[in-house]
Amino acid sequence: MNNDILKVLYSEEDIAAACKRLGTQLTEDYKDKTPLIICVLKGAILFMTDVIRDMDIYATIDFIDVSSYNGGTASSGTIRLLKDLDTDVAGRDILLVEDIIDTGRTLKYLEDLLKDRHANSIKVCTLMDKPSGRVVEAKADYVGFNVPSEFVVGYGLDYEEKYRNLPYVGVLKPSVYSDK
Ligand code: XMP
Ligand code: MG
């Protein structure tokens, strides 16, 4: 699997440092609240489990799964809700944890859903932000890394459901796509 990687963008050490930095800020910002931390499956699972360990606050967690990609490298434009939350969000302070914000469609969909359900506040923490990919307006409050317009895999992010278990974020060799 590691042989398929052209270059490492963010190493394990880079990611750990970003989690520390964000965790410290989130600890300060949420010290008087008990937020509901929502992990957007599947891509954010590694990031969420790491960053919450750097947050010294009371919080509850839940998971939601949405899909816009259908396994490839280009967004399909339509968001589907694959798995809903178990928690009632009415009146809750929500921290959405995302792997990457690209077109912004997923985030817009989730924010609209949470607003419809009367969340008290909604903030967004993303490991990566790809501002060059925006199609709809969407803004993250906490960002690990601003990434160039490349398709990235690893540390939760996939290509055709693989590479999620890489401990770092990298770019695949072109041959991985062309061999298909
Ligand atoms: P949108 O376009 O809705 O995208 O902002 C958000 C979701 O799209 C996926 N995504 C990627 N997945 N490498 C991936 O493995 C990428 O470079 C990439 N860009 C977007 C991701 O699931 C994210 O939650
Ligand atoms: Mg995702």
Structure notes:
It is a single chain. The radius of gyration is 16 Å and the shape is globular. Helices cover 23% and strands 29% of the residues. Strands 4-3-2-5-6-7 form a 6-stranded mixed sheet, sandwiched between helices. A 3-stranded antiparallel sheet has the order 1-9-8. Strand 5 (93-101), helix 3 (105-116) and strand 6 form a beta-alpha-beta unit. By secondary structure, the protein is an alpha/beta fold. It has helices at residues 12-29, 45-51, 105-116, 174-178, and strands at residues 5-10, 36-41, 60-67, 80-83, 93-101, 121-129, 142-146, 152-153, 169-172. The model has no long low-confidence stretch (mean pLDDT 95). It is built from 4 helices and 9 strands; from the N terminus they run βαβαβββαββββα. The chain starts with a strand and ends with a helix. The protein binds xanthosine-5'-monophosphate and magnesium ion. Its main location: cytoplasm. Its EC number is 2.4.2.8. Residues 11-159 form the Phosphoribosyltransferase domain. It comes from Levilactobacillus tongjiangensis. Keywords: Cytoplasm, Glycosyltransferase, Magnesium, Metal-binding, Nucleotide-binding, Purine salvage, Transferase.
Question: Could you provide a short overview of the structure?
Answer:
Helices cover 23% and strands 29% of the residues. With 180 residues, it is α/β, with parallel strands linked by helices.
**Helix amount, in percent?**
10-25%
Order of helices and strands: EHEHEEEHEEEEH
Overall mean pLDDT: 95
Low-confidence stretches: none
Number of helical segments?
Answer: 4
Ions, cofactors and other ligands present here are: xanthosine-5'-monophosphate, magnesium ion
Roughly how many Å apart are the termini?
16 Å
- Category from helices, strands and their pairing: alpha/beta
Rg over C-alpha atoms, rounded to the nearest angstrom: 16 Å
